[in-house]
Structures are given as C-alpha cells and as structure tokens.
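WARN retry 2 of 3 for item q-0093 after timeout on previous attempt; input resubmitted unchanged.
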Amino acid sequence: MSLLTLLPFIVLIGAMFLMTRSAKKKQQQAVEMRNQMQPGSGVRTIGGMYATVKEVNEDTVLLDAGPGVELLFAKNAIGAVLTDDEYNRIVHGIEHDLKSDADLVPDDASSLTGTGDSATDAPADDRAVDLGKKDTADEAADEAPAGEAKTDAEPKKTDGDSEAK
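OK item q-0093 returned
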C-alpha cells in the first residue's frame, strides 16, 4: 500500500484524536466548576432551573429553589455556577450598575453642543427654518393640477384580457 492510500485514514484518526481531546478538556472544566460550588452560590441546572446552593455533598447538591422548597440534585445536573451579579440579574431582576451617574445622557442636547452658553448658541433670528415641507394651503393648490395630470398618466385597467395572445 502506498502512503497516498493511507493518508485519509491518518487524517481521520488525527481528527478523532483532536475531537476527543477537546471533549475531555470541556469535561474537566465542568468537573472543576462543580467542585468550586459553595453554599450560597447561585446555580443553573441542566434543566434550566435557577437556585441557590444550600449544601454540597460528594455526589449530590441540595438546592434552595424558593421559600420552603429544597431540592436534591446530582452534581452532574448542575449546568453552570453563576456569579452573584449574574444570578441576581437573572432571578431577581436586579441590575448591578457599574456606571456612574455622570455617564447618563442629559434630557436636552444643549450640554452636548457648543460651550453651554445658551445666549451664544441660540440662532440670531427667530425665523422659521425651511425643512422642505409645504404648507397645507400650498399643498391644496398644488394637488388640483397634479390630480388632473394623474388621471391622464394612469394606465387603463383591463379585465384580464391582453392583446399579446
């Protein structure tokens, strides 16, 4: 057999080796995460339930899912150990605000433009700015001739018969 015929098998075996290696790495990280659980930390089970760890045993975890609700889960059923901020945000809806109040955008844009002096920022005269819109009186005068032109320009409707048969 030549090396060329063995090459696909070698590549296949190498790919299988890399896949099993990455799967073992993920499995090891999950085991480490589950071993770092402590009473009081928030967790998410593989079923999607959020709870607080009450007690950690060898193979099981006692979870507090609410007032008077204690559940016993296998350690393997814990999908993720959450940080306190993440747990509070998801379960209680409490957002931990890391930003200061200075980062908020003001209600008006006067502080964002110019020097902040409203006398110098104001326009010199109080004339209305033309934004390209017409007044309603101008529209009514313009619509009458345009309406007549539209009737001539509209294609005639047929009842489905066409001349190209």
